[in-house]
Design a protein that fits this description.
Layout lengths: L15 H17 L11 E6 L4 E6 L4 E4 L2 E4 L21 H16 L14
Antiparallel strand pairs: 1-2, 3-4
């Protein structure tokens, strides 16, 4: 799905799928960086099967809470992140929250006949 570049200023991707993958990769780099991840938390696995064009992103044990009906995710690996500049889901203030909300948005978009009219292409 095409998106406006720069809704998250740290990223220049032009599709939702590429943005999700870029954020996942950045989160993985943070997880592996023991200066940022001082506790050694292992919350994410990212695997890529280029032959089948499949990416698996597994996130486990995130802390979150509901605030005024909205899911807020606690950033486990605090580091510099420019908050999103758009409307939902492009308005999150930390990387984990942005990634989680983008995946939820992508999932809903994949099953929307208006946004994705090809039933065989419902993947998230």
């Amino acid at each position: 799905m095409n998106i406006t570049p720069g809704l998250y200023p740290d990223f220049s991707e032009t599709t939702l799928e590429a943005l999700v993958l870029a954020m996942g990769r950045r989160l993985m780099r943070r997880q592996r960086n023991l200066v940022i991840n001082i506790t050694g938390k292992d919350i994410m696995d990212l695997t890529l099967d280029e032959e089948d064009s499949v990416v698996n992103l597994a996130i486990d044990e995130l802390e979150g809470f509901i605030n005024d009906g909205a899911i807020e995710v606690v950033e486990p690996f605090p580091a510099s992140f420019q908050a999103g500049t758009g409307s939902y889901p492009f308005n999150q203030t930390n990387l984990c929250s942005a990634l989680l909300h983008l995946v939820m948005y992508q999932h809903a978009a994949e099953f929307s006949p208006t946004l994705n009219p090809e039933p065989a292409r419902k993947h998230c």
